[in-house]
């Protein structure tokens, strides 16, 4: 809206507005997901309560699967572009979206995460037949109203449309081809997440506080992002990534405006990916949010934000690489080290996974230091691979967290996890596999992904980053192994942890993520091929 | 670079106006303060709330449930904001515009329908 | 150092080796790894733990059978390899492409050549014997199924390490043996010392792994490949400095795994593990992986004199260092551990001599595998009879009561000190000779080490098997069951005859295609050196006899001892150095970061006290995580970022 009017003022003569020409087929995955979200709102409004939860699950699953199929079709039909860069696909919807190789791969990845997330949301066998979400969010925690709502077995099935909105926003974020679209996408993905964070059934105060923190800080960082966009607009006179790129490479005046704008945009994005020093929300929010939401958020937000970040900085600011690269280097280093060292001292499983997520953001930033295109390991392919491997392991790990419980719900103190190997060997082995993948042990997806980001960075001349990265992963490995030992060899405290028996929903999530983690470690070839063929970003 | 400097120079007049404005206001208040007598009574020190006696401390929590009103406001405000410019160019675009705006309004309506079904619209 | 620089290296013959594709027997070599790996998987994640199912009753038999089956495959492969033409003795079998990115690909392959074949025999052969022994040693342990699972896991990982055709795959095995070692050292983790030792081994090894990982990254960056063979071909065209950097990084890795100075400190503590583990992992096989790495990377070391010199220095320092520690320890296993460090120092020294020494390094590695495994198992047998007491001051006069253990241990003893005719005599003799031929000082260190070895091993022998009875009250020494003594007898036999490998230079010729070979002429006839060595050994042994057999042995270690003994008992202050250099700063760093994190954390994962009122604590903890602090951090970060970018522009 403001873009149009500002352009009208700046442009020479106001041109007559033409009907936008949108290739609906190409953006169909996005439309299907947002359609499923809207349909979900209607289901919430009209379907009787008894059938609502099940209907919502059906709508979400069908939507995600349909969108996945559509993504595959779109991906198969992308044309190869041989220009300045080798890539596939290109801008569509009046240039506001770029449906290129990386975008389509990211869509598929996000939809996969979304499906796993929905399966976790749908789990109702763990908490006496109720979902992990509070019965009525508007009742004060511990009040009579709350107990009444629980007794009536009311459930917030709104989480499904909310998740679909967030998913749609993530997909939009990863493929947006102008800064304004990116901002809208950022908000569309963030707002539902803020809300969902506050909906935990147990420990509601913790959950609400997490939501509040996430919202305030998220809004704060969005403001930075928006301010950055404004500055870059002031510099380039356009929101389009392609136009900004042209302006950057022709160095039209006012470099300060560009630099400040880049820095502020970077702040907004680094907040979303949880890089130091913009990470502080992560442990609190991961801990407080309902665990299924944490799982979905950890995998999805990171993926969408990283792809968007690569897109902005490689496409729009590619010409100013030597201005932003040092900052990214510095942040990658402190993020890796901080994440690895701080996780050593954690005693809460969810906080530990949050710090591990911070460290992984650092490793992903290392990947950003690689080459934009070429036939070796490029930054884009390395980061895409990393995101799939990390996301799968993260969702799996949080899925395991939902199963280890005591009378008060999930028990996340690490000490209470001692002896899990005896209580439920299968679960403990699964969690071990995820931890080993986080640690980057060979034969897990984590090893190949670390290797590929390091290889990309080394190819790009960023060997100091690689050295720090190797040191940081060595540090982190120590902690992960200690947890593994705790699971299997430490004597259980008291009765030891109890493992709730979940429905096939959660089991299938754990099974799928374990399979993905191992397949990516043993036979990474197909996915590596795929991310390589996706090629570079096309503007 | 000099173009850029010239461009920035055009902001000088804005700065000047702001400066003059601040000076004027400060001056008037300052003169006022210099000449007025100061006699305080408890009634005078009370916070002025449209003639109603204030209750409680200055910091009060508002109920989170007011989000519903914000919600409804957004539904209608967003409607209006997009409808006005659309109306200006509607004729020149034709049916495509009508359909797309209908889709847009449909989405907004979904939000309204949700609010209605959740009982937000019953004013009791 | 004078003669060091005058070496003219033989043209790297090993670079000419062209691996042939595996067929016939060789296409089954993957079974070597697969059998113990599958067995480990069954034992570790089979039916629920501790429920006395069939796996708990027969698991140890399955594990042992897997090790033996793997050994049989190894023997078949070795025999087949003997039948091949010399030019076709490096066979490679591609299993699948692990990863392929652009021009870079890593293949999961089995690379089976003369060097791998020897290692396979050593690992599976000694491994099988130790499995058999463990059946007796661990008979009453409730978790023996898990123990055998770990042992199988170790065998599989170690075989991956030596059969790897690619440094990345080697790294996989490297990490795998590290993990298995960690798990086995801490096997009795209810003992706090065992848990601490496991942790320490793990951390110190990480430092070494860092070197290996960076070395592999450097190869990838320089040559675009990590295939061992191709790296060997490429490195000849690379600059001197690249070869040196690679050599030093790999040496760092080797130091960690092989407990060489300065990363030696973990090995002594690793003796907290069950004794069969000490024998297999911390004597015969895993700790020699560093030597394997250096020999396998011969192509790199051939090109860098600096790297080779570094290897020699590390070897010499460690062989004296370990011997010194061996003299001061009263714990039989720690004395043996010091001796292990020292013997691996010999191997490193030999490997650092280049093509002149590679074959001798491997030769000594194999004989050491026999006699050290033998002695560790013997020590285990003694402990078995002495209620797990490890203090040699509480032994004495055991030769009558444990005749088999005594005789087999004596064979190992004669082998390690280099008694003429025994295996150690040949292998150590060769190393000392070539050391003298290359560099006088290295030779002198090796010679001195041989004397000290004779001294401390004689001391162990006397304190344990001779002299007065100094047993505790309730100890009734007895011979171990057959299942434990049979492996001892086999290993003792091998310790005696292992030297046969060098008859008519068999092992040198066998390894030449892999490592190259060259011979340095000594200034004196070889038999003179041999005589000198034997004389030095005799002096060392006699000194020990005079000091320990002719006098009474105090029941507790005397405190009024020389500064040398005190230093030796303190592991030459290795831990103190580590603590000051690494541990303290690390702790401060972690603590301060946790402070920044603002959440009260006790640092111990299993702290029980914290369990009480966890929920309440969680809430209170959240109160301290103020949003305003976080927002200030974000703002500060943004400010720094903006200013930094602008400053770059202004500069």
TrEMBL record, chain A:
It is a multi-pass membrane protein. Keywords: Cell membrane, Membrane, NAD, Oxidoreductase, Quinone, Translocase, Transmembrane, Transmembrane helix, Transport. It catalyses: a quinone + NADH + 5 H(+)(in) = a quinol + NAD(+) + 4 H(+)(out). InterPro entries: NADH-Q_OxRdtase_suN/2, ND/Mrp_TM. Residues 176-475 form the NADH:quinone oxidoreductase/Mrp antiporter transmembrane domain. Pfam families: Proton_antipo_M. Coiled coil: none annotated. The chain crosses the membrane at residues 24-45, 57-78, 104-122, 159-176, 182-202, 214-236, 256-281, 293-318, 324-345, 352-371, 383-404, 425-449, 461-489, 501-523. GO terms for cellular component: endomembrane system; plasma membrane. It is an enzyme of class 7 (translocase). Its EC number is 7.1.1.-. GO terms for molecular function: NADH dehydrogenase (quinone) (non-electrogenic) activity; NADH dehydrogenase (ubiquinone) activity; quinone binding. Its main location: membrane. It is found in: Cell membrane; Endomembrane system; Membrane. Belongs to the complex I subunit 2 family. NDH-1 is composed of 14 different subunits. Subunits NuoA, H, J, K, L, M, N constitute the membrane sector of the complex. NDH-1 shuttles electrons from NADH, via FMN and iron-sulfur (Fe-S) centers, to quinones in the respiratory chain. The immediate electron acceptor for the enzyme in this species is believed to be a menaquinone. Couples the redox reaction to proton translocation (for every two electrons transferred, four hydrogen ions are translocated across the cytoplasmic membrane), and thus conserves the redox energy in a proton gradient. This is NADH-quinone oxidoreductase subunit N. It comes from Mumia zhuanghuii. The lineage of its organism: Bacteria, Bacillati, Actinomycetota, Actinomycetes, Propionibacteriales. The gene is nuoN.
TrEMBL record, chain B:
The chain crosses the membrane at residues 12-35, 66-87, 93-116. GO terms for cellular component: NADH dehydrogenase complex; plasma membrane. It is a multi-pass membrane protein. It catalyses: a quinone + NADH + 5 H(+)(in) = a quinol + NAD(+) + 4 H(+)(out). Pfam families: Oxidored_q4 (PF00507). PANTHER family: NADH-UBIQUINONE OXIDOREDUCTASE CHAIN 3 (PTHR11058:SF9). Keywords: Cell membrane, Membrane, NAD, Quinone, Translocase, Transmembrane, Transmembrane helix, Transport. It comes from Mumia zhuanghuii. This is NADH-quinone oxidoreductase subunit A. NDH-1 shuttles electrons from NADH, via FMN and iron-sulfur (Fe-S) centers, to quinones in the respiratory chain. The immediate electron acceptor for the enzyme in this species is believed to be a menaquinone. Couples the redox reaction to proton translocation (for every two electrons transferred, four hydrogen ions are translocated across the cytoplasmic membrane), and thus conserves the redox energy in a proton gradient.
């Amino acid at each position: 809206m403001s873009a149009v009017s500002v352009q009208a003022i700046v442009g020479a003569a106001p041109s007559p507005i033409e009907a936008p020409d949108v290739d609906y087929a190409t953006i169909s995955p996005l439309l299907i997901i947002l359609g499923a979200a809207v349909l979900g709102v209607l289901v919430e409004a009209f379907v009787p309560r008894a059938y609502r939860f099940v209907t919502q699950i059906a709508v979400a699953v069908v939507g995600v699967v349909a969108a996945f199929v559509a993504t595959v079709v779109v991906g198969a039909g992308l044309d190869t572009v041989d220009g300045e860069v080798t890539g596939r696909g290109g801008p569509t919807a009046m240039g506001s979206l770029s449906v290129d190789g990386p975008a389509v791969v990211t869509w598929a990845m996000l939809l996969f995460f979304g499906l796993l997330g929905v399966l976790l949301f749908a789990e109702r066998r763990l908490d006496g037949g109720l979902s992990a979400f509070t019965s009525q969010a508007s009742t004060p925690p511990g009040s009579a109203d709350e107990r009444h709502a629980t007794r009536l077995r009311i459930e917030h099935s709104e989480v499904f449309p909310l998740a679909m909105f967030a998913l749609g926003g993530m997909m939009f974020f990863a493929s947006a081809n102008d800064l304004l679209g990116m901002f809208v996408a950022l908000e569309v993905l963030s707002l539902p997440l803020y809300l969902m964070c506050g909906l935990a059934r147990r420990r509601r105060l913790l959950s609400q506080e997490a939501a509040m923190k996430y919202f305030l800080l998220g809004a704060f960082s969005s403001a930075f992002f928006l301010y950055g966009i404004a500055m870059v607009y002031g510099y380039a006179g356009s929101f389009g990534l392609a136009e900004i790129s042209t302006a950057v490479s022709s160095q039209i005046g006012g470099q300060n405006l560009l630099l400040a704008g880049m820095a502020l945009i970077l702040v907004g994005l680094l907040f979303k990916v949880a890089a130091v020093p913009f990470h502080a929300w992560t442990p609190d929010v991961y801990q407080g949010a309902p665990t299924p939401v944490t799982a979905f958020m950890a995998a999805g937000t990171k993926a969408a934000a990283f792809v968007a970040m690569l897109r902005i900085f490689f496409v729009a600011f590619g010409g100013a690489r030597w201005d932003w690269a040092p900052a990214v280097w510095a942040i990658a280093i402190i993020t890796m080290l901080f994440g690895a060292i701080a996780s050593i001292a954690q005693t809460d499983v969810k906080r530990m996974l949050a710090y591990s997520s911070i460290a992984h953001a650092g490793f992903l930033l290392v990947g950003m230091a690689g080459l934009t295109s070429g036939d070796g390991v490029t930054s884009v392919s390395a980061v895409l691979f990393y995101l799939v491997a990390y996301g799968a392991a993260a969702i799996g790990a949080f899925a395991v967290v939902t199963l280890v419980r005591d009378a008060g719900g999930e028990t996340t103190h690490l000490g209470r996890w001692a002896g899990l190997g005896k209580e439920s060997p299968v679960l403990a082995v699964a969690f071990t596999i995820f931890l080993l993948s986080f640690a980057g042990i060979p034969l897990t997806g984590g090893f190949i992904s670390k290797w590929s980001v390091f290889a990309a960075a080394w190819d790009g001349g960023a060997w100091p980053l690689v050295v720090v990265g190797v040191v940081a992963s060595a540090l982190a490995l120590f902690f992960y192994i200690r947890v593994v030992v705790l699971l299997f060899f430490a004597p259980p405290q008291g009765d030891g942890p109890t493992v709730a028996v979940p429905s096939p929903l959660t089991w299938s999530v754990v099974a799928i993520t374990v399979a993905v983690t191992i397949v990516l470690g043993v036979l990474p070839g197909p996915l590596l091929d795929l991310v390589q063929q996706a090629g570079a970003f096309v503007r | 670079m000099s173009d850029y400097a010239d461009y920035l120079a055009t902001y000088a007049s804005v700065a000047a106006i702001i400066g003059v404005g601040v000076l004027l206001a400060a001056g008037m208040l300052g003169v006022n303060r210099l000449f007025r007598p100061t006699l305080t009574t408890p009634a005078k020190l009370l916070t002025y709330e449209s003639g109603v006696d204030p209750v409680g401390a200055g910091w009060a929590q508002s109920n989170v449930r007011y989000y519903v009103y914000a919600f409804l406001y957004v539904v209608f405000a967003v409607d209006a904001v997009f409808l006005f410019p659309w109306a200006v160019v509607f004729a020149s675009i034709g049916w495509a515009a009508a359909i797309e705006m209908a889709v847009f309004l449909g989405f907004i309506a979904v939000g309204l329908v949700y609010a209605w079904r959740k009982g937000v619209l019953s004013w009791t | 150092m004078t003669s060091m620089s005058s070496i003219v290296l033989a043209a790297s013959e090993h670079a000419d080796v062209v691996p042939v594709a595996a067929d016939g027997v060789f296409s089954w070599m993957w079974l070597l790894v697969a059998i113990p790996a599958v067995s480990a998987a069954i034992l570790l994640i089979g039916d629920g733990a501790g429920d006395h199912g069939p796996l708990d009753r027969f698991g140890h038999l399955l594990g042992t059978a897997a090790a033996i089956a793997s050994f049989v495959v190894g023997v078949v492969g070795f025999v087949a390899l003997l039948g091949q033409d010399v030019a076709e003795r490096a066979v490679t079998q591609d299993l699948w492409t692990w990863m392929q990115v652009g021009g870079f690909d890593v293949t999961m392959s089995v690379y089976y050549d003369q060097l791998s074949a020897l290692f396979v025999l050593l690992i599976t052969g000694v491994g099988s014997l130790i499995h058999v022994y463990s059946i007796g040693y661990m008979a009453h342990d409730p978790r023996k199924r898990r123990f055998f699972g770990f042992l199988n896991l170790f065998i599989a990982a170690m075989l991956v390490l030596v059969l790897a055709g690619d440094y990345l795959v080697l790294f996989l095995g490297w990490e795998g043996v590290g993990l298995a070692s960690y798990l086995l050292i801490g096997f009795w983790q209810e003992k706090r010392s065992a848990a601490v030792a496991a942790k320490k081994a793990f951390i110190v090894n990480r430092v070494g792994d860092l070197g290996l990982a960076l070395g592999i990254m450097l190869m990838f960056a320089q040559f675009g490949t990590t295939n061992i063979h191709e790296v060997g071909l490429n490195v000849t065209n690379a600059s001197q400095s690249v070869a040196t950097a690679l050599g030093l990084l790999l040496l760092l890795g080797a130091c960690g795994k092989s407990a060489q100075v300065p990363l030696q400190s973990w090995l002594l503590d690793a003796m907290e593990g069950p004794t069969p583990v000490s024998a297999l992992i911390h004597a015969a096989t895993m700790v020699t992986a560093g030597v394997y790495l250096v020999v396998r990377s011969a192509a790199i070391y051939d090109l860098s004199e600096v790297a080779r010199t570094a290897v020699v220095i590390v070897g010499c320092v460690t062989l004296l260092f370990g011997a010194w520690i061996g003299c001061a320890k009263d714990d039989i296993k720690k004395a043996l551990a010091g001796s292990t460090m020292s013997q691996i120092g010999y191997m490193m020294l030999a490997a650092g001599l280049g093509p002149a020494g590679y074959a001798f390094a491997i030769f000594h590695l194999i004989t050491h595998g026999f006699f050290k495994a033998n002695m560790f198992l013997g020590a285990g047998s003694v402990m078995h009879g002495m209620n797990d007491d490890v203090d040699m001051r509480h032994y004495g006069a055991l030769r009558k009561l444990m005749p088999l253990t005594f005789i087999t241990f004596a064979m190992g003893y004669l082998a390690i000190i280099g008694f003429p005719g025994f295996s150690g005599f040949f292998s150590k003799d060769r190393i000392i000779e070539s050391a003298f031929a290359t560099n006088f000082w290295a030779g002198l260190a090796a010679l001195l080490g041989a004397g000290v070895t004779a001294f401390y091993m004689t001391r162990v022998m006397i304190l344990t098997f001779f002299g007065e009875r100094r047993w505790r009250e309730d100890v009734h020494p007895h011979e171990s069951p057959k299942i434990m003594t049979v492996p001892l007898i086999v290993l003792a036999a091998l310790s005696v005859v292992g030297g046969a490998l060098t008859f008519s230079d068999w092992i040198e010729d066998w390894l030449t295609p892999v490592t190259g070979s060259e011979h340095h002429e000594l200034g004196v006839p070889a038999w003179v050196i041999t005589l000198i060595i034997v004389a030095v050994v005799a002096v060392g042994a006699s000194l020990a006899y005079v000091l320990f057999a002719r006098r009474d042995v105090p029941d507790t270690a005397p405190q009024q001892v020389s500064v040398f003994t005190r230093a030796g008992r303190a592991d030459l202050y290795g831990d103190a150095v580590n603590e000051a250099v690494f541990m303290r700063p690390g702790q401060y760093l972690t603590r301060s970061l946790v402070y920044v994190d603002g959440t009260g954390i006790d640092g111990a994962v299993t702290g029980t006290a914290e369990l009480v009122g966890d929920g309440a604590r969680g809430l209170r903890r959240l109160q301290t995580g103020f949003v305003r602090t976080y927002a200030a951090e974000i703002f500060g970060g943004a400010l720094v970022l903006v200013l930094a970018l602008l400053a770059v522009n202004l500069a």
